[in-house]
């Protein structure tokens, strides 16, 4: 299993026969093996998680499949896809998946959680390995929001993580967002303390990787800091 950080919340994960590509919106992609099937995942419709340019892969690679959160279909509709050159034939082959769903293909098993923002989080099992990609599922508490909002957010986040409590992940891609100020680490920390994750890759840090270093020296991360991947 080879993991490559692309940019923001985008990662590629290469296996013997398949490649997973999560939440691409910009950045230089690796050159992939054309014999492998590429599964392209988009967790929701936000501009920093989804870009129509991912369909350019079809020009270079013969086996590309698209798995999108259903909110992308709702937000953009077939007409906008068509305007970007996505033909009806291609559009019909996109798998639009809802939250709390399960989809199995010949190569992999896909499960979803409900995001605390938009769309879904993905859990993908392939070749005996299980990968978690949070999308925008995070503990989004903010200084400028009132107490009720933040308490409701905490309840919603904890409800979703309870569905995967103590579950093993070989690798997890988890939000660590500096815009949250002093609370930047809360969702990441809660995830790590409630799952059995071998390696965790921070994402969604808006090119400010100083938050990774900050978390690693905080007391709360003592039991898992060696499993945090730095860039």
Describe this structure in words.
The structure is a single chain. This protein is α/β, with parallel strands linked by helices. The chain has a domain at 1-100. Helix content is 24%, strand content 29%. The chain has helices at 57-60, 70-83, 88-91, 147-162, 186-194, 210-217, and strands at residues 2-7, 10-14, 18-22, 37-42, 64-69, 95-97, 102-104, 109-114, 120-126, 129-133, 168-175, 196-203. It has a six-stranded mixed beta sheet. A six-stranded mixed beta sheet has the order 7-8-9-10-11-12, with helices on one face. The longest helix has 16 residues, at 147-162. The protein is globular and about 50 Å long. This is Putative Zn-dependent hydrolases of the beta-lactamase fold protein FolD. InterPro entries: RibonucZ/Hydroxyglut_hydro. One of its GO terms (molecular function) is hydrolase activity.
Summarize this, please?
The protein is an alpha/beta fold and about 230 residues long. The chain has helices at about 55-60, 70-85, 90, 145-160, 185-195, 210-215; strands spanning about 1-5, 10-15, 20, 35-40, 65-70, 95, 100-105, 110-115, 120-125, 130-135, 170-175, 195-205.
Strand content: 25-35%
Biggest pleated-sheet summary? 6 strands, mixed
DSSP strand count: 12
What average pLDDT do the residues reach?
A: 98
Q: What is the rounded Rg?
A: 17 Å
| Order of the strands making up the biggest sheet | 1-2-3-4-5-6
Shape: globular
Order of helices and strands: EEEEHEHHEEEEEHEHEH
Helix proportion of residues, in percent? 10-25%
Going by helix content, strand content and strand pairing, the class is alpha/beta
Total helical segments: 6
């Amino acid at each position: 299993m080879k993991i490559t950080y692309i940019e923001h919340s985008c990662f590629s994960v290469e296996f013997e026969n398949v490649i997973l590509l999560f939440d691409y919106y910009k950045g230089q992609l690796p050159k992939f093996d054309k014999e492998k099937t590429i599964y392209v995942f988009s967790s929701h419709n936000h501009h920093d998680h989804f870009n129509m340019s991912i369909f350019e892969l079809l020009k270079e690679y013969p086996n590309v499949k698209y798995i999108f959160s259903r909110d992308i279909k709702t937000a953009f509709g077939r007409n906008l896809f068509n305007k970007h050159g996505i033909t009806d034939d291609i559009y019909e082959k996109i798998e639009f998946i809802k939250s709390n769903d399960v989809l199995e293909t010949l190569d992999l098993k896909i499960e979803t959680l409900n995001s605390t923002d938009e769309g879904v989080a993905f859990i993908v099992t392939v070749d005996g390995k299980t990968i978690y990609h949070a999308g925008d599922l995070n503990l989004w508490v903010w200084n400028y929001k009132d107490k009720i909002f933040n308490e409701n957010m905490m309840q919603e986040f904890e409800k979703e993580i309870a569905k995967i409590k103590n579950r093993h992940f070989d690798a997890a891609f988890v939000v660590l967002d500096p815009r949250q100020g002093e609370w930047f680490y809360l969702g990441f920390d809660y995830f790590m303390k409630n799952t059995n994750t071998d390696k965790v890759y921070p994402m969604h840090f808006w090119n400010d990787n100083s938050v990774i270093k900050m978390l690693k020296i905080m007391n709360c991360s003592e039991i898992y800091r060696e499993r945090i991947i730095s860039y």
